[in-house]
Write a structure and sequence with these properties.
Blueprint (H helix, E strand, L loop, with lengths): L1 E8 L2 H12 L6 E7 L13 E8 L39 H16 L4 E6 L4 E7 L4 H4 L4 H15 L7 E6 L2 H23 L3 E2 L5 H10 L6 E6 L6 E6 L7
Parallel strand pairs: 5-6
Antiparallel strand pairs: 1-3, 2-3, 4-5, 7-9, 8-9
């Protein structure tokens, strides 16, 4: 279910930030429509703030549970049956997170008939970087990293299943993500320069959540530019929009 709020600010960027702070969401989780652009006026007269409409998605409300039925009368006492043997408690998955990651990926790579060394490096932000090294790992990366994204998603699901505290697992192969990140940063700055020069919005091609995050992060301090995402997966896109007025922090 879609909901929206309106927010104002001295600039379009500050109006969007105000809405995100109210919602507790990040920029990639919302769609933004600029209702009114900021006006500086003359000598302080005639100025007006920017106004934006921020749309976000919330889970549909679950139907109220049906009223409980009256408890049935207790059955008549029966002959005492022999006590049943106590069933053993279900076993839980064991092993450290690193062991579970290695076990899952080892099986997956064997199934894909791909040989690769698995290097696991815990990071300070409670995430884990997994680097796959080997020759001819293009099959693990796929077109624009789609296969690598799928492997990462499956690994996160398998390792975090049954855990109360989730850990984020990032998987890279042949340094693909670092190279892609640098390429996205160059693209973001190039597009932002065009947006400012021609004062028109530019919508980028569909990207996954990680790639959209790189665009948002790269341009978060770029003067006279705001970014937001629009559309639904897998065709969700990032919009680089012109924002009149200077950023105030």
């Amino acid at each position: 279910m879609l909901k929206w709020i309106e927010a104002t600010g001295k600039t379009e960027e500050l109006a969007v930030r105000s809405a995100l702070e109210q919602l507790g969401l990040d920029r990639d989780s919302v769609s933004v429509e600029i209702l009114e652009r900021a006006r500086s006026g003359f000598l302080g007269f005639g100025s007006s703030p920017a106004k934006v409409k921020v749309t976000y998605e919330v889970p549909d409300e679950e139907p109220a549970p049906a009223p409980a039925e009256e408890p049935a009368a207790p059955p008549a006492p029966a002959e005492k049956a022999a006590p049943e043997k106590e069933q053993p408690a279900p076993t839980t998955r064991t092993g450290t997170v690193e062991e579970r990651i290695r076990a899952f990926l080892t099986g997956l790579l064997a199934h894909m008939e791909v040989e690769a060394e698995i290097h696991i490096s815990p990071k300070e932000d409670n995430s884990i970087l997994v680097t796959l090294e080997g020759s001819r790992l293009g099959a693990l990366i796929g077109h624009r990293g789609e296969t690598l994204d799928a492997i990462q998603q499956l690994t996160n699901y398998s390792v975090n299943r049954g855990r109360s505290h989730r850990v984020r697992i990032h998987i890279d192969a042949e340094n693909y993500r670092a190279k892609r990140e640098e390429s996205l940063k160059r693209l973001a700055n190039k597009v932002a320069a065009k947006v400012v020069k021609y004062r028109r919005n530019i919508t980028l091609e569909p990207m996954n959540a990680y790639e959209r995050h790189v665009i948002h992060e790269t341009l978060q301090d770029y003067p006279d530019v705001i970014t937001y995402s629009t559309g639904t997966e897998p065709n969700r896109r990032t919009v680089v929009a012109f924002s009149r007025g200077k950023h105030v922090y």
